[in-house]
Amino acid sequence: MTCILTLLHVTRRPIFCKRTCVTSHLTALHSTLPKSETQGPGNENESLLENLTTLGVDVRMVRRRQPGVLKRFATNEHGLTHFLQSKGASQEMVASIISRFPRAITRSGEHLEQRWELWRRVFKSDGEIVNILARSPESFFRSSDNANLKENIVFLGSLGLCSKDLYRLLTTAPRTFSNSLELNQQMVELLRDVCLSLGGKDPDQFVRAIISRNSYVLIRSTKRIKGNVSFLQETLGLSSSKLLELLQGQGAEVLDLSNEYLLNNFRDIQQKLLSLGCSQDEVKTLVVKYPPVLYISRENLRNKIDCLQDGSVNIKQIIQKPKVLEFSMDNLKRRLKELQEIGYDFEKNGIGILDSSQRRFDAKLLRLSGQ
Questions:
Q1: Which candidate, 198, 196, 195, 197, places its Cα nearest to that of 210?
Q2: Were both Cys, which of 6, 165, 204, 247 would link to 251 (CB 3.0–4.6 Å)?
């Protein structure tokens, strides 16, 4: 993918609005967009309610999610509908978008055009953006500051993040782009410092690796990320080079967890494994081999290990291939049952078959059963 290095140009024009009394001309005012004017406490705009109902919007959902929108007397529901339909959205899709993120109707036509132009710098087609809005309207409408969005796209692109990385950030962690530029710069500088402190030679490549692995890093605090890096280094007792390698791999996936959650989950893993006769080194081995194990809740972890042991899998085998813990309980139970039915010997053949994709598992099961 070509990296996003092109400077983006967006002209910001202030929108001036006059405070107007509530009259019979409310409907005509829906095309203008004052920032926060409302009908008054507890009073919903009847004309707006009629418009939304006609458009097929779920008004009850709007009341649950962003009720203040219904008190506004100057909104842009018709303009938004026309704009999105011109990009390929259906009427049903527009109604769903407004129902789930009502503040979308407060965006002016100029704002929508500017934002769409910015997103098209990342996405290949209008259709891609429409599909994302259908899944997650918040990602597009959450922030109203197009200039800040532009600055963040330019900055993140300058790090060497390519289209697919920016795509992932926009769709999974859109708050990244409503952060101030300074906030994102602070996180990037922290990650660069971590790399250099561990003896890394390419801090920008390190930053790219972290963000590519964990879309949520930029919306967490620098204090949290720094604390988690320190925790992993101190708890796992890794050399600087080993920790650097871990962080650029699956270790990056746990950096966004809260410090307390990370600590508690490690203690749960430790307690469970020690109760099964494992050593402290084996606890560390499991975490180093599969850091996402730190995501798994205490109950879920215990249930999965117990399930595997009930299926004749040895705890030492789990430590050597901990990725097996990634699968759901239902999946593990089904695979163990199917393997038991053909007399599969884990002690003799290992547990690699449990750690395979569904397609490879089914193919190997057929071969083993002689079909």
A1: 195
A2: 247
